[in-house]
From TrEMBL:
Record-level GO BP terms: siderophore biosynthetic process
Lineage, top ranks: Archaea, Methanobacteriati, Methanobacteriota, Stenosarchaea group, Halobacteria
Signal peptide per UniProt: none
Matches recorded under Pfam families: FhuF, IucA_IucC
Domain Aerobactin siderophore biosynthesis IucA/IucC-like C-terminal: start-end pairs: 167-237
Aerobactin siderophore biosynthesis IucA/IucC N-terminal domain ranges (all copies): 12-136
Native source organism of the sequence: Halorussus gelatinilyticus
PANTHER family: L-2,3-DIAMINOPROPANOATE--CITRATE LIGASE
A GO MF term: acid-amino acid ligase activity
Protein name (Swiss-Prot/TrEMBL): IucA/IucC family siderophore biosynthesis protein
Length: 256
């Protein structure tokens, strides 16, 4: 899909045709990917998909940039040292049109775009996909891709599918659940890592690297707010999503 440029003239918006490199939609529909681009493009889509309308809001753009900067502090260094197979896909920049503030107090133009770093280039793009695609049943009706992976491993290793499943899941928890809980409990950064926001890279069929993605899915527990502000002064004002214990507990239950 070619990116389109438009401008406002006397006759309104005019199409300037297809320009630039070719991008392709990902499973999130509104995030576009080009194998050789340093960034993925996440646009607004004013359509309800699953539980919400998929439109980017100005605070979400700011939150993504703030968290990207937070991960460049000692917090990010600590995370990478402890969990080298876990990564957060950042949204360090955004683009939009300044249309002023509307009567409803909103300032969105509908053209809000997140520039998400593209870590899936070259070898990193191989055998990587969202967990939801790994677990969902295929259209053909022959089970999930994960089921096929487990059966293939069992046959190759001469073991039962039950034994392979246990080892596979232990490895998955090691590179996903452990760092997610550590990041929240010890450092005060929560992530909504449900299956759509989780990308898993496999190596010879087993979990090898876990990626979290989503500008909208960061939150700060009240108990760690001051610590985060010490690391990056003003981060709470730029990324105002501070939740109390009950709300945090509900989010963790939904995602895990």
């Amino acid at each position: 899909m070619g990116l389109q440029r438009v401008h406002r003239g006397e006759d309104g918006l005019q199409s300037l045709g297809r320009v630039g490199r070719e991008f392709h939609p990902t499973t999130s529909v509104r995030t576009l990917y080009a194998p050789d681009s340093p960034f993925m493009v996440k646009g607004s889509l004013n359509v309800a998909i699953t539980n919400s309308e998929r439109a980017n809001k100005r605070p979400e753009l700011d939150r993504g940039v703030a968290v990207a900067e937070l991960l460049d502090t000692e917090l990010g260094d600590d995370l990478r040292e402890r969990f080298p197979d876990f990564d957060v896909v950042r949204g360090p920049a955004s683009l939009t049109l300044d249309v002023g503030e509307g009567a409803d107090g909103e300032s969105e133009s509908g053209f809000e775009v997140v520039l998400r770093e593209n870590v899936f280039r070259g070898a990193n793009a191989e055998n990587a996909g969202p967990v939801v695609a790994l677990c969902q049943d295929r259209i053909e009706g022959d089970g999930s891709r994960l089921g096929t992976v487990v059966r293939t491993l069992a046959e190759r290793e001469g073991r039962s599918t039950e034994a392979v499943s246990r080892d596979w899941f232990r490895r998955y928890l090691e590179i996903s659940l452990r760092p997610i809980l550590w990041l929240y409990i010890e450092r005060g950064l929560g992530v909504e890592a449900h299956q759509q926001n989780s990308v898993l890279a496999l190596e010879e069929g087993y979990p090898d690297r876990f990626y979290y993605r989503d500008n909208q899915g960061y939150y700060f527990p009240e108990s760690k707010y001051d610590e985060l502000d010490d690391l990056l002064p003003g981060v709470g004002e730029r990324a105002p999503w501070e939740f109390g214990p009950r709300r945090n507990k509900n989010l963790r239950k939904r995602c895990l």
